[in-house]
Design goal:
Radius of gyration: 14 Å
Number of strands: 11
Distance between the termini: 39 Å
Structural class: mainly beta
Shape: globular
Oligomer: single chain
């Protein structure tokens, strides 16, 4: 069964860190572009970060402006997992975070370019 499963969410205080994992099964994740999206209550889903297929020559990773310098996306091909390291978290980062995959080369910020979605993991930043 082709699927991705997110984990690593939880409750963290402002300024804290979390690392989200997106584990793939049924396919080799390194041949796919991967996106992290989030959806806060009452808001539309937005892209957080994305990473290109390992063979893409350019456009390796991208981040929404609000997380640049705080979040880092990375691959571990041996583990068939993509990570999202989130540092210096603030209440504005509270949301359900989703991992999505697509057989394509380049990082994409558009959710319609992804066709394998996880169930999401809740991140709550609160004191």
């Amino acid at each position: 069964q082709v699927q991705v499963v997110e984990s690593g969410g939880g409750l963290v205080q402002p300024g804290g860190s979390l690392r989200l994992s997106c584990a793939a099964s049924g396919f080799a994740l390194d041949f796919y572009r991967i996106g992290w999206f989030r959806q806060a209550p009452g808001k539309e889903r937005e892209v957080v970060s994305c990473i290109s297929n390992k063979d893409a020559e350019t456009n390796g990773t991208n981040y929404v402006d609000s997380v640049k310098g705080r979040f880092t996306i990375s691959r571990d091909n041996a583990e068939n997992t993509v990570y999202l390291q989130m540092n210096n978290l603030g209440p504005e980062d509270t949301a359900v975070y989703y991992c999505a995959a697509n057989w394509g080369y380049y990082c994409s910020a558009y959710d319609y370019n992804y066709d394998i979605w996880g169930q999401g993991t809740q991140v709550t930043v609160s004191s």
